[in-house]
Design a protein that fits this description.
Largest sheet: 6 strands, antiparallel
Strand order of the largest sheet: 7-6-5-10-9-8
Oligomer: single chain
Distance between the termini: 27 Å
Structural class: alpha+beta
Helix content: 40-55%
Number of helices: 12
Amino acid sequence: MTASRPRAMMVGRGGWVAMSGQNGTNTGPAMTSGLVFETGPMGLSARSSRRLLEHVRHLETQFQEQRKLRELIARANAGISLEEVLDHVFDSFRSLVPYDRIGLALIEEDGVVRCRWGRSTAQRVRLGPGFGVPLSATSLGAVVESHRPRVINDLPAYLAEHPDSESTRLLVDEGMRSSLSCPLVAMGKAIGFLFFNSVQTGTYRVDHVDGFLAIAEEVAIIVEKGRLYERLTEANERLEAAVRKHRKTEATLRRAQGELKASNRELDHLASLDGLTGVGNRRTFERALQAYWARGIRRGSPISLILIDVDFFKLYNDTLGHVAGDDCLRAIARALREASRRRSGDMIARYGGEEFAVLLPDVPADVALTIAERMRQAIRALERPHPTSKAAPMVTISLGVATVRAREGEGPAALVNAADQALYTAKENGRDRVETSLT
């Protein structure tokens, strides 16, 4: 996120868009494609208008992707089956990302990659559930190792070079000409693949990757939860059989109960963590914030929040690649944990792509500021080179700190807004700094 990017965009019911600049002020109106834009007193040139329109369309596409991802998460949390969720993906995202076919394959315990689900616009589906091939006999090993998608934009040419690839042959027979293979990663381990295919050659570009990865990340969580539920069901069945038939010993019963409890703990743990960094995820943070707010009302104690943004992280990804970016986020998460006070109630969560949040119940403002500064110095101490940063030659973070006392009739939004405003001030004042908002 660069300093020149607009601070916010709001779309009204009538299609009005207000975009605030770096100084937080709006500029005067201009019309384009039914939308109203705030511009300067001199107006916009035709070229600038076109660029602005392209930017707004890009933001609208991102907004639609995020809305559909929220719908996907809601369906998964509602307990809808994996097949129904995948059908929803196929029907919902085609207007945003290109594909004519989606397939899901999982890596089984014996190392076989087996197709579990597929849906295609082709009249005859050739590659369907049940098809399996050893992972070692495919070219997907690089996808597993890198945790990054692979693009093949000319499947017939690839088949000519790899005539033994039966899966490619079946896809070509279906009429598919391009392929994007996304790894399904849960808790740092590849568990399968989500395949997107198109009937056109040259379909997939670099700017498609993040959208597909966001879909794959949610599908991976759903798949892993499904596996855990299967283990829970099996453990329950074993336990019930033992009780009915009285043929299992007390030790066997304890073992079955231990498996059930371990699976429950693993499921709860998986649902609460961010798959990349291992810290809490956004949903876990929001639940904790509500709980601490209610406790703060009862006790009359302060609550502090630190919002953190990695400075110029998009430039880091553009320069060094997404694999390096993922490794950088993991290193930052570890450093933030080590720099915190490590109280049982404190929480560190991944708040967004390159944003983190630190929730500190019962912590006054001066202590929260000390913790924030310690975290800022810990990230600088990593000395990870950032050749395109405009703040420092190494990776740095900006931090916004806010402290409030919870009150009846109010929600925690005031705390989040205050911390976000302090973070914005830190970035406006040059980044790699801590700013506070005391309310």
